[in-house]
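Quick check before the chapter quiz. The format below is the same one you will see on the exam, so make sure you can read both the input and the output lines.
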Amino acid sequence: QVQLVESGGGLVQAGNSLRLACAASRSIFSINAMGWYRQAPGKQRELVARITSGGSTNYADSVRGRFTISTDSAKNTVYLQMNSLKPEDTALYYCNAEIIRVKRADYWGQGTQVTVSS
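Here is the expected output.
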């Protein structure tokens, strides 16, 4: 198992930046992949960005070129740097950890709110 604690959300104006952080309770080397998802009111949760233990990344088309996912293994933390924020980025952002042993298990943080004003 792993516990995830997010931080860094807030209210910003469009065009500005935020950095989200997600601290894991175990070494991220033992986690197959970590990612950020978001859910806006009335919408389904969607993948924003994901990074594997090997360093491969993938992004939603809507954020590619503006958001960057990275990790700090010394701190067992994954970050999401969000630049050029838009009002449509407003959502509750969740950190996710995928641990695959015999089968895949997903773990989630409590979520952090990001609100972008126009």
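If your answer matched, good. The longest strand covers residues 91-100.
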